Amino acid sequence: MTIEASSLIDRPASDVWKLLSDPSAWPKWNPVYLELTQTSAGPAQIGATFHSKHPQNRTLDETLVAFETNRRFAFEFTSGPIRGSKETYTIEELAAAGGRASTKLTRQFELRFSGIFKLLGPLLVTPGFKREKRVEVDNVKRLLEQPVSSGSPTIPQ
User: Fold this and answer.
1) Residue 48: pLDDT over 80
2) What is the dihedral sign for C-alpha 71, 54, 125, 86?
3) What is the distance of C-alpha 150 from the center of its chain?
4) Which range is least confidently modeled, 26-40, 66-80, 93-107, 122-136?
5) pTM of the model
6) CA nearest neighbour of 6 among 77, 151, 80, 105
7) In terms of Cα–Cα distance, which of 60, 66, 3 is closest to 26?
8) Residue 152 pLDDT > 60
9) Which residues of 92-110 are buried (b: 16+ CB within 10 A; e: fewer)?
């Protein structure tokens, strides 16, 4: 099962990339991530591993399986009931209109279930779960487009 959500963001692709590629910023725009921590040494690159904490004391391990700076990255979940699922973020800079850059962000979640969840999982994917994925890309748009004068930084430093 694949769930996809996209948003047009009035910012250059490099700004969108900067926010999304910072694991410490994930809880700012993704309500299901309380924390995302890189567990492997070195820079984020294909093969890098991450550990994520989620509500209700759930944790998941993830491996970076695609990485193209300012364009695309993808995680594969390597633990938990969604082991084998893949989450891909694609960033596409569009032609500047009126001198302003704009970017299309697409989030694709290829949901696979393991264990007992192979049978029960499809029943658990509610409209609310699908809406949650839409909210995540909308949150990125909201964070990046808010005025800098609002007192909170729009892009992690």
Assistant:
1) yes
2) positive
3) 24
4) 122-136
5) 0.83
6) 105
7) 60
8) no
9) ebeeeeeeebbbbbebbbb
Q: Long-range contacts for 39-42 (Cβ within 8 Å, ≥24 apart)?
A: none
Q: Euclidean distance between the first and final Cα of the chain, in Å?
A: 36
- At 89-135, the pLDDT tens digits run 999 999 776 778 899 999 999 988 766 666 666 666 666 667 777 88
Which among 84, 41, 45, 42 is positioned nearest to 62, based on CA atoms?
84
DSSP string, 49-106: EEEEEETTTEEEEEEEEEEETTTEEEEEE-SSTTTT-EEEEEEEEEEEETTEEEEEEE
Q: CATH homologous superfamily for 2-145?
A: START domain (3.30.530.20)
**DSSP character at residue 125:** -
Q: What is the CA radius of gyration of the chain?
A: 16
pLDDT in tens, 127-141: 666 777 788 999 999
